[in-house]
């Protein structure tokens, strides 16, 4: 079994969580991450927010940009809400619930909870242990008891594209006729589908054409700094 390790964003150093994870025997590689605070696997990232930061991110709109970046970058994004400090700003309960629903219902990102930094460490560690024990189950994008129909599978594949939900996936497949044709479509062809738009079409082409560089490599423990 490979030695467990993860990437942590440089800004997480101040939380003490990377150091605590290292003390549990994990190799923690510190670097600037474009999405999420921790990369736990090639297609799983975790964003950690204290309650105060979560509320502040609603007011300054960071939350919505971060959620979209997580969805566009990882198949299995997670959000860990750490209730470690009293909010500095008051927020209407409806607005707070709306943000929770935006993350968990509209964007299908599991919302985890921790009472403090120590519990966050245990949560991250437990997830990594699960990934080591049952990788084929954890990484099943659409796990079902019975095999889905070919039509559902085609739609699920298209839904992995940035900004594409079930309705747009259905529209794209109806327009182009197959998954292969959707993936081969140019920006000009994609924008002909109602709801796609040029910005979304450009993101789709960019992710399909980008060369793949695996963010994870094996290691042997400790906290490593990487400012690149």
Helices and strands: which structural class?
A: alpha/beta
Low-confidence parts lasting 5 or more residues at pLDDT below 50? 138-145
- CATH architecture label name of the largest domain: 3-Layer(aba) Sandwich
> Can you count the beta strands?
7
Q: What Rg, in angstroms, do the CA atoms define?
A: 19 Å
Give the CATH topology of the largest domain: Rossmann fold
Spatial strand arrangement across the major sheet? 6-5-4-3-1-2-7
Quick one: CATH class of the largest domain?
Answer: Alpha Beta
User: Strand percentage, roughly?
Assistant: 15-25%
> How many domains in all?
2
Intertermini distance: 29 Å
Order of helices and strands: EHEEEHHEHEHHHHHHHE
Residue-averaged pLDDT, rounded?
84
Fraction of residues in helices?
40-55%
Number of discrete helical segments: 11
Instruction: Please state the overall shape, judged from the principal axes of the Cα atoms.
Output: globular
Biggest sheet layout? 7 strands, mixed
How would you sum up this structure, described in words?
- The chain folds into two domains: 5-138, 3-Layer(aba) Sandwich (Rossmann fold); 150-209, DNA polymerase, domain 1, CATH 1.10.150.
- The protein is built from eleven helices and seven strands.
- The protein has helices spanning 17-23, 51-59, 62-73, 93-106, 117-133, 135-138, 150-159, 166-176, 179-184, 187-190, 197-209; strands at 5-9, 27-31, 38-41, 44-50, 76-82, 111-114, 222-226.
- The protein has a seven-stranded mixed sheet with strand order 6-5-4-3-1-2-7.
- Strand 1 (5-9), helix 1 (17-23) and strand 2 form a beta-alpha-beta unit.
- Helix 1 (17-23) crosses helix 5 (117-133) and helix 7 crosses helix 8 (166-176).
């Amino acid at each position: 079994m490979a030695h467990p390790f993860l990437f942590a964003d440089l800004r997480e150093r101040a939380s003490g969580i990377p150091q605590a994870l290292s003390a549990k025997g994990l190799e923690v590689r510190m670097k600037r991450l474009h999405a999420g605070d921790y990369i736990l696997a090639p297609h799983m990232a975790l964003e950690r927010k204290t309650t105060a930061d979560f509320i502040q991110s609603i007011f300054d709109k960071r939350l919505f940009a971060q959620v979209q970046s997580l969805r566009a970058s990882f198949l299995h994004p997670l959000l860990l809400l750490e209730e470690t400090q009293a909010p500095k700003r008051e927020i209407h309960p409806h607005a707070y619930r709306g943000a929770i629903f935006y993350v968990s219902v509209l964007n299908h990102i599991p919302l985890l909870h921790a009472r403090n930094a120590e519990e966050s460490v245990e949560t991250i560690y437990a997830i990594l242990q699960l990934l080591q024990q049952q990788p084929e189950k954890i990484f099943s994008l659409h796990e079902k008891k019975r095999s889905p129909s070919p039509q559902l599978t085609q739609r699920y594949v298209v839904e992995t594209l940035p900004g594409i939900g079930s309705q747009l996936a259905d529209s794209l497949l109806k327009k182009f006729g197959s998954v292969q044709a959707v993936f081969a479509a140019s920006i000009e062809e994609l924008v002909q589908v109602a709801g796609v738009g040029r910005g979304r079409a450009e993101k789709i082409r960019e992710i399909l054409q980008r060369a793949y560089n695996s963010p994870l490599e094996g290691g042997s423990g400790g906290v490593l700094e990487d400012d690149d």
